[in-house]
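Protein in question kept in full:
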Amino acid sequence: MNKTLEPMPGLAQTDPIAVRLREVLSSLGEDPGREGLLRTPERAAKSLRELTSGYLVDVDAMING
């Protein structure tokens, strides 16, 4: 299942997380080019960034500032 994925129009090729998520979808046997999954890698990447954004926050500055 190591096929090379063609670049998707609209997929932010500069977003490494979205690119990898597209690879994950393909590895799971999905077609990341089908209509229902076209923007999924970008949405999932945005979601992961939001969910992990707290790791970059200075807690002392947030609480005491």
About this structure: The CA atoms of residues 12 and 60 lie 35 Å apart. The mean pLDDT is 86. The chain has three helices and no strands.
